Hints:
By secondary structure, the chain is α+β, with helices and mostly antiparallel strands. Helix content is 43%, strand content 19%. It has a five-stranded mixed β-sheet with strand order 5-6-1-7-8. Magnesium ion is lined by residues 57-58, 61, 151-152.
Amino acid sequence: MHSSGWGSSExxxxxxxxxxxxxxxxxxxxxxxxxxxxxxSDRTVxxxxxxxxxxxxxxxxxxxxxxxxxxxxxxxxxxVGPRSKRGVVLTASYEARPFGVGSAMPMVKALRLxxxxxxxxxxxxxxxxxxxxxxxxxxxxxxxxxxxxxxxAFLDMTGSEHLFGPPRRMGEKIKAAxxxxxxxxxxxxxxxxxxxxxxxxxxxxxxxxxTVVPKEDAVNWxxxxxxxxxxxxxxxxxxxxxALGYQTIGDIAGADLxxxxxxxxxxxxxxxxxxxxxxxxRIEGHxxxxxxxxxxxLNEDVSANEDILLYLRRSADHIARRLRRKNYLxxxxxxxxxxxxxxxxxxxxxLAEPTDVAQVLYAGAQKMLDRFDHxxxxxxxxxxxxxxxxxxxxxxxxxxxxxxxRALEVTLDRLAERFGDNxxxxxxxxxxTTVVDQTPDLDFLRS
Length: 447
Ligand code: DCP
Ligand code: MG
């Protein structure tokens, strides 16, 4: 389902759409001159890489977030994890790492190694919120983003030199954009022509690193590094490789392939290919999320149906817009209500036809609401679209039933894109009750 096959003209269309929003040109001719300049500047770029893969990974993510939010923690060794003795370290700030403290280490051992460390319990909601912002930044740089976890992703930057400059400039811009969007967090970025080398490169100069490895340098650059950096070589395989006399990636690259295959089977072949910087895997962008949801925790509990419906309608608008933006259709809807005793109640259904229209999602949600027998009050109202599928053109033609509602919603999308999601509200949706917490749009990680 990914669209890595973007040609440069489509990228240019995309770029001009982005620029359209970012700049205010004094006249249409200024705009044309600027776009012309972009097209021409393509010619001045040194031989562009056939493929450009970026890998970005936040530095000591959870710990850096804690230092960002609490200035007293800055410059000090911070361990994120439960305060209990039985806990393990989730991550440690770079000030704690010289003591040997790292992820997955028992807390007791970590504090023995670094007694001055400040232990901070994790705040997953905050990490998720910042992760969503970081992923949104990545999507500003590429239509093909493959998130690997909350804090790292591959970006297919192929063909975007005329927008962002040569690979090093791309890396600088990604890093600067993340810093700005998060209020100061740093990422390390690696760029190369393959996923594997880009991933090793991002870890090469952490923290706040930027490493660019052109294709012709890749094998020599990998060679002196430990076999532990090979993908697929876990601790057991590493021990076997050492026992066979292979210490570095260069040892594997220069090994006798048959011998590697005899001792390691297909893994031998895989490691040999990686060591020689061959990795044909594409960026798996636009993975289809299985559901897309929106939970709203309210500052006042609600009981009346009409109050609950108000939030369901708003959520339906928000979710349908995301569905359309990502080109998904939803096969069903799910309504969640949380009681004041924190009991979570759920009702869900399948829709007659997959949809990306808010009005249809809302109608489904209304029916589900009738199926709850709890009188309330509720402190959270949640709506999710589930059974998602990619919306190819033939499926979209099937949406004619909801045609006029969809047409209106698409027009509103354009306005929201220009002026922000909150610019247009239904008059009856204006209410005194505010939302105190809303889940971020982490669609890619939901299942
Ligand atoms: N994490 C976790 N448990 C682990 C490893 C990581 O909960 N065993 C969490 C905490 C990390 C976050 O995931 O902050 C990202 O993991 P990374 O492996 O990218 O580690 P960091 O970002 O913390 O450090 P680095 O600078 O090495 O990337
Ligand atoms: Mg990280």
